Amino acid sequence: TLSLHDALPISFVFAKFPYYGVFKNQNNKKWYALIGDVKQNALGKGEDARFIINVKPSSENFNEYLKIKNVFSAYHMNKKSWLTLSLGNYLDDEFIKKLVDESYEQIDGK
């Protein structure tokens, strides 16, 4: 399970995108989440610019998650294993936390 210690620090690794932050497992250095902002139409459905988080959820729930409003195929990540979630008042906080935990579990120990 994800702990606050594991979640820190966030790395800002893209000079071209200074507002994109990467969350890495501190043991194996694998990414489990990426936060950033996207411009209008970047998600392909005409949304306004907004903040997003990319996560790698469990494969058994992947297609079900895609049916939820404001959950998209990954923005600039492998669309077969990563999802993009709109942040703000679009999705329930507990749902977002659940997917971040799932994402962490997918890469933990690998």
Structure description:
With 110 residues, the chain is an alpha+beta fold. Helices cover 22% and strands 25% of the residues. It has helices spanning 4-7, 62-66, 93-107; strands spanning 10-11, 21-24, 31-38, 50-55, 71-73, 83-86. It has a six-stranded antiparallel sheet. The longest helix has 15 residues, at 93-107. The radius of gyration is 13 Å and the shape is globular. It starts with a helix and ends with a helix. The mean pLDDT is 81.
Reported for the largest beta sheet, the result is: 6 strands, antiparallel
> Count of helices?
3
Shape: globular
Q: Which regions contain 5 or more consecutive residues with pLDDT less than 50?
A: none
The overall average pLDDT, rounded, is 81
Number of strands: 6
Q: Helix content range of the residues, please?
A: 10-25%
Q: What structural class do the secondary elements suggest?
A: alpha+beta
Integer-rounded radius of gyration: 13 Å
Q: How do the strands line up in the largest sheet?
A: 1-2-3-4-6-5
What is the string of SSEs from the N terminus onward? Answer: HEEEEHEEH
Q: What fraction of the residues are assigned to beta strands by DSSP?
A: 15-25%
Terminal residue distance: 14 Å
Topology readout:
Elements lengths: L3 H4 L2 E2 L9 E4 L6 E8 L11 E6 L6 H5 L4 E3 L9 E4 L6 H15 L3
Antiparallel strand pairs: 1-2, 2-3, 3-4, 4-6, 5-6
What's the short story on this structure?
This protein is α+β, with helices and mostly antiparallel strands and 110 residues long. Helices cover 22% and strands 25% of the residues.
